[in-house]
Amino acid sequence: MVAVKPKDLAPTATVKFFGAGTAACVADLITFPLDTAKVRLQIQGESKSLEGGKVVKYRGVFGTISTMVKTEGARSLYNGLVAGLQRQMSFASIRIGLYDSMKQFYTRGSENAGIGIRLLAGCSTGAMAVAFAQPTDVVKVRFQAQVRLPDMDSVKRYNGTMDAYRTIAREEGIRGLWKGCMPNITRNAIVNCAELVTYDIIKELILKHDLMTDNLPCHFTAAFGAGFFTTVVASPVDVVKTRFMNSTTAQYSSASNCAYIMLTKEGPKAFYKGFMPSFLRLGSWNIVMFVSYEQIKRAAMRAQQSWESPI
């Protein structure tokens, strides 16, 4: 995706598009429990009780995962996985797969893109992806936030992924499927810029100074750095996005109102709730995604070269 040498055969836009979606799905399959733990920690505090009057308290990443497994079963860690995979296949394909094409669009075909162009390209593809894939994100968050205790006569919020789409559209209107779209656009513009541009720059510097070759350790290092930086800058807006998308009543009048209530009732630390699972998830997700993406592109290019080579 980045720092392609002139002598290398560049992957096509189609390879990047579907390769990014596939790599993101692989990453989601591996890191989804961390994402679910992050969501539970982020919404903790807005409601002090659950069915039966029990106080819900999650402590840390692995404490949250352990509590969920004990009280709801191991399957609860993968609540919303179908919607999550639908989200990644559509969302990542656009925001990651079209990043290079967007850079070339802004530079009018030139390979020399400065930091400003890279940031602009990241913001553009991030916003485009959210506008298209927002319903899948809403459904994913709703499932991840849903608590269902096996020893209680609690009612499922939704019976399945498609039922969730239909129920939200019927009860909350079509706008309900795009609930939190603006904070999500803000969040993903930030995430996309931090993630892609940081990976882009770190990988480019590593190759420029001959610290590593364009291989697995290089991809791992660049992805880890991108994951950490992204978590730091995106956590506050991510928490607001999660809480606002999970609300089904007039709990918050807007994303800014949600942020204000969090600040006044829970303090500034509320914006970094779930930071460790966010970092563990984003760091590991970036590593798996970028490494998988690079390998998928190389496999596709080898296949293309083999197909084009004369027998």
Task: Describe this structure as you would to a colleague.
The protein is mainly α and 311 residues long. It has a single domain (13-305), classed as Alpha/alpha barrel (Mitochondrial carrier fold), CATH 1.50.40. Helices cover 70% and strands 0% of the residues. The protein has eleven helices and no strands. The chain has helices spanning 13-43, 61-72, 81-95, 99-106, 115-145, 161-172, 174-177, 181-208, 216-246, 255-266, 275-308. The chain is globular, with a radius of gyration of 20 Å. Residues 3-7 and 48-54 have low confidence and may be disordered.
List the helices and strands and how they pair.
Blueprint: H1 13-43, H2 61-72, H3 81-95, H4 99-106, H5 115-145, H6 161-172, H7 174-177, H8 181-208, H9 216-246, H10 255-266, H11 275-308
List keywords for this structure.
311 residues, mainly alpha, Mitochondrial carrier fold
Question: Briefly, what is this?
Answer:
The protein has eleven helices and no strands. With 311 residues, it is mainly alpha-helical. It has a single domain (13-305), classed as Mitochondrial carrier fold (Alpha/alpha barrel), CATH 1.50.40.
Number of strands: 0
- Strand fraction: under 5%
The CATH homologous superfamily: Mitochondrial carrier domain
CATH topology: the name is Mitochondrial carrier fold
Helical fraction equals over 70%
| Molecular shape | globular
Give the overall pLDDT as a whole number: 83
Number of helices: 11
Could you spell the SSE succession in H and E letters? HHHHHHHHHHH
Number of domains: 1
- First-to-last CA distance: 29 Å
Proper CATH architecture: Alpha/alpha barrel
Q: If you compute it from the alpha carbons, what radius of gyration comes out, rounded to the nearest whole angstrom?
A: 20 Å
- In the CATH scheme, the class would be Mainly Alpha
Sheet of most strands: none
Structural class by SSE content: mainly alpha
Low-confidence stretches: 3-7, 48-54
